[in-house]
Amino acid sequence: MLAYALKRLGLAILVALFVSAVAFALLRLSGDPALAIAGDGAREADIELVRKTYGLDRPLAVQYLDWLATMLKGDLGQSLYFKTDVWGLVAGKLPVTFIIGGLAILFALALSIPLGVLAAVFAGTWLDRAALVIAVVGQALPTFFFALVLMMLFSINLRWLPVSGSDTWAHFVMPTIALGYYVTPPIMRLVRAGMIEVLGSDYIRTARAKGLSGTSVVLKHGLRNAVVPVVALSAVQLGYLLGGSIVIETVFALDGLGYLAFQSITHKDFPVTQAVLLLLALIYVLLTLAADLLNAFLDPRIRVA
Amino acid sequence: MDGTITKPAAATPAPLPAETALPRPPTVLQRVVSHPGLVAGLVLLGLCVGMALLAPLASPHDPYEQSLGQGLIPPVWYEKGSWAHPLGTDNLGRDYLSRVLYGARISLLIGVSVMLISGLIGTVLGLVAGYFGGRTDLVVSFVITARLAMPVVLVALAVVAMIGGSLLVVILTLGLLKWDRFAVVMRSATMQVRALDYVAAAEAAGAGRLRVLAGEILPNVFPHLIVVATVEAGSAILLEAALSFLGLGVQPPLPSWGLMIAEAKSFMFFSFWLIAMPGTALAALVLGVNLVGDGLRDVFAPEGRA
Lengths: 305, 306
Hints:
The structure holds 2 protein chains of 2 kinds. Chain A is mostly helical.
């Protein structure tokens, strides 16, 4: 287990480093940062001075290593648009995004696990078909369109929920549904497929033969085994959620990381874009690492492979 | 693809003795027709393709022609609607039916071209990793993992913002980003096929690596490729719509469905149909594409679904 964990950790660190290099290169290609810092209408001499002061005249590799070193010290630089410390800015937006991401994945699990189990137990019946329709529609519905439909229905027509903002819990209801429904289909399909496989296995037949009740067999023996791969998928989906929250946060004007990312992109505030990209990548890497380790812990066969 | 799929059905014409005769395995066409999801998907997809092809004939007006006095006319089934504009007009007085019809062209173009670019990259990476294994596989798997760690929406938004939004930029950006699932699926499918006897036979017969990859492995992982390709085309269409909706995708005055929803957002409280039409069209197209993908997976591997 330890050897596997170390190997997996090494890979995670390599991926994080690789992504940081890509983020650096990508945002460096976005145009001359000296020009962006100096502002519009700056004279050639001013731009040259900025280049010298910020060390932008050095080779790219040196600049990257320097940037990486300052970043590892916790210094993400200054925002060009908001004129504040990037780390403070980003840290202030994290809670909102974590709340939406967490609520959305809980919503997705609360919907997909019961539906997946029901679809598997009643495979081939109308219940199975209804669950399939929910999944298929969820995969085809554009999140931003679904969000606008929810807004129209619950905020404008029924007046139950506030249109946008992130001040109260009521503000999080529609974003949670819009984002959660988006990741429900893959989880539900996995639960259904896993349950069908498990329910056909020998130990379930043994459990039934022992005279255990149907519910007990399905939930205690079946679900417990079918749920193992769901852990890994949920972690991956949570990563997708954080990416997808850019769209949803912008639609609902939720003051989180996604909205900040969108603002930084439209204002060409590259230190902030870089920081958000790195942070989201880091969260994804940590999530998949945690999921892999948890899976290896739950299923010893994985550790060997 | 045809050769590998129809072979089992075509190989049974010789009548077997009566007592051992098995029911003829259904042909591909029979399997397609008896799959309701696949039929529904093909109908939806066919409708959208028809809209795209017939847009110049079926459109009552030029989708770009503005007439400011004619803005925000509701669809014909509302009291103030008229048959001159069956789906009404947008705030600039452009005929909405024409714009929705032409919008199908943009979405289909995006779906197909992104699928081709990302499919080419992902298939090559997956085939190479799965066939050669070892260090090659390690490198490719690492690149896949790193790519997955970066959220597509964020990277695409940043790239489009720096280069400037246009149809071509969106296609190239998404094409260069969305190869991950192709690579993952092709890699594992190639690994399975690689271990089979006919690959070993081809190698023993002296076939070169390229010949084995292109002649033996690729045709046999093709069903997987088709399934991933449809699903990815659907997801590319949704991504373009999201980018255009955020203003960092296809630019006005092109009638992209995502862009049309963005343009109609300020009028949504009074004229929700301006959002509902392109939104429904988008959902219907992606639903069709996904149903076809799901259906093809069942048709190719009927034993895969319990």
